């Protein structure tokens, strides 16, 4: 993956679709606003069930088109939609003419995230790929929320990433974090205040200088700073309590409140398909994303395989090696929280294979995760088994 997600055929790109869920007041809109502010040159398309206070000031400057679709200067589109219309809006946002790099679906506070995940996985648009389920919880209200909404345990169990927001307001933030981890079945869990997580944890970010012309969220934020705006979180919508008062942006531009780790792995020896699948199937707790390219050597001499993994979701995309003397390397980046870099590297090293010949059945496991026409038409996806 380069700027968005795993490409299909060489030269094309798929747009990751991230589902952002959480109960009323957990801070979903605050987190989405934060991503929009910190997107740099990355163009984010947002689909929201409940049209809340998403950068109202920015919309007033950039201008709105129609009642439910907003086109911002950096290419962001925010659509107030019913969940049944989701695929229609994915088609619209994934149109190459929009220039969008990532789509974030902000679910209603009462939505069933599993159904939204299924809808994304069933999309017939070849330009989109599942980018993960991010569940936002309010650390200060988590215990009460579990009593009122016991279904939150089920939501946490299927999440790929859990953002424990407002940890600064919780009486015992560590206790809440521990409880959330116990309910999240190995998902990456990060603590946050004001919904601040690094966008690079969720998707690949373009350098800011790649943005071309017109007005962006970054430009608007700078405009506010220069004109004395206090940068308070917007009010209204189902996440009106997602912020923390008028000083919420106190050092918004200069400091991020998320810790994530990344591991880079490069090998000039091919990887053994079976060993790599064993590694991927048993990937460690907190490992959220894996991206890059794999050389399977004699197991497929014509193609390298782009790999895209988010949580339990896994895809391989074969693409021909470039003609000429391009080095045939495996290049992977692993992103997570609380991961053991040395242990992961050691496990990947054990996947190397310099055997000159291939077992004729060795690629069957990999090919199971290569999209086919039936999966593109909405058939069950073996790479994501929701409970």
Shape: globular
* Main sheet summary: 8 strands, mixed
Secondary structure class reads alpha/beta
Q: Span from first to last CA?
A: 28 Å
Task: Name the average pLDDT.
Answer: 76
Radius of gyration: 21 Å
Can you tell me the residue ranges where pLDDT is under 50 for at least 5 consecutive residues?
1-11, 51-75, 210-255, 374-382
H/E series:
EHEHEEHEHEHHEHEHEHEEEEHHH
In terms of DSSP E residues, the strand content is 15-25%
In which range does the helix fraction lie?
A: 10-25%
Major sheet strand order: 3-4-2-5-1-6-7-8
Number of beta-strand segments:
13
> What is the count of DSSP helices, taking H or I runs of 4+ residues?
12
What would you say this structure looks like, in words?
The chain has 387 residues and is an alpha/beta fold. The protein has helices spanning 28-37, 56-62, 86-94, 113-121, 142-148, 152-158, 173-183, 217-226, 273-281, 341-349, 364-367, 373-376; strands at 15-21, 44-48, 69-71, 77-80, 102-106, 128-138, 161-165, 188-191, 261-267, 287-294, 303-310, 313-320, 330-336. An eight-stranded mixed sheet has the order 3-4-2-5-1-6-7-8, with helices on both faces. The chain has a five-stranded antiparallel sheet with strand order 9-13-10-11-12, covered by helices on one side. A hairpin with an 8-residue loop joins strand 10 (287-294) and strand 11 (303-310). The longest helix has 11 residues, at 173-183.
């Amino acid at each position: 993956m380069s700027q968005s997600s795993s490409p299909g055929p060489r030269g094309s790109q798929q747009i990751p679709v991230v589902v952002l869920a959480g109960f009323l007041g957990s801070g979903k809109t605050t987190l989405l606003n934060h991503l929009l502010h910190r997107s740099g040159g990355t163009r984010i398309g947002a689909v929201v069930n409940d049209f809340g206070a998403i950068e109202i000031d920015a919309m007033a400057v950039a201008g709105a088109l129609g009642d439910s679709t907003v086109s911002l200067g950096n290419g962001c589109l925010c659509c107030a939609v019913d969940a049944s219309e989701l695929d229609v809006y994915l088609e619209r946002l994934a149109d190459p003419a929009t220039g969008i790099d990532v789509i974030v679906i902000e679910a209603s506070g009462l939505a069933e995230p599993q159904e939204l995940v299924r809808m994304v996985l069933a999309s017939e648009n070849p330009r989109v790929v599942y980018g993960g389920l991010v569940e936002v919880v309010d650390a200060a209200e988590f215990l009460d929320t579990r009593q009122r909404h016991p279904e939150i345990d089920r939501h946490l169990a299927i999440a790929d990433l859990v953002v424990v927001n407002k940890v600064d307001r919780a009486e015992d933030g560590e206790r809440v974090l521990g409880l959330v981890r116990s309910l999240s079945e190995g998902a990456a869990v990060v603590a946050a205040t004001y919904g601040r997580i690094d966008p690079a944890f969720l998707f690949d970010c373009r350098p800011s200088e790649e943005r071309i012309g017109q007005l962006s969220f970054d430009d608007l934020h700078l405009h506010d700073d220069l004109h004395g705006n206090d940068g308070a979180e917007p009010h209204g919508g189902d996440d009106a309590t997602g912020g923390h008062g008028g000083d919420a942006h106190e050092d918004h531009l200069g400091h991020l409140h998320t810790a994530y780790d990344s591991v880079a792995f490069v090998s000039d020896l091919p990887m053994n398909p079976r060993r790599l699948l064993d590694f991927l199937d048993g990937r460690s707790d907190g490992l959220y994303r894996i991206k890059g390219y794999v050389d399977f050597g004699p197991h497929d001499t014509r193609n390298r395989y782009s790999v895209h993994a988010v949580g339990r979701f896994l895809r391989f995309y074969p693409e021909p090696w470039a003609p000429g003397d391009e080095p045939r390397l495996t290049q992977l980046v692993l992103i997570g929280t609380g991961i053991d870099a040395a242990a992961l590297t050691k496990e990947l090293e054990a996947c190397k294979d310099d055997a000159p010949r291939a077992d004729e059945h060795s690629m069957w496991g990999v090919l199971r995760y290569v999209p086919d026409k039936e999966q593109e038409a909405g058939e069950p996806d073996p790479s994501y088994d929701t409970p």
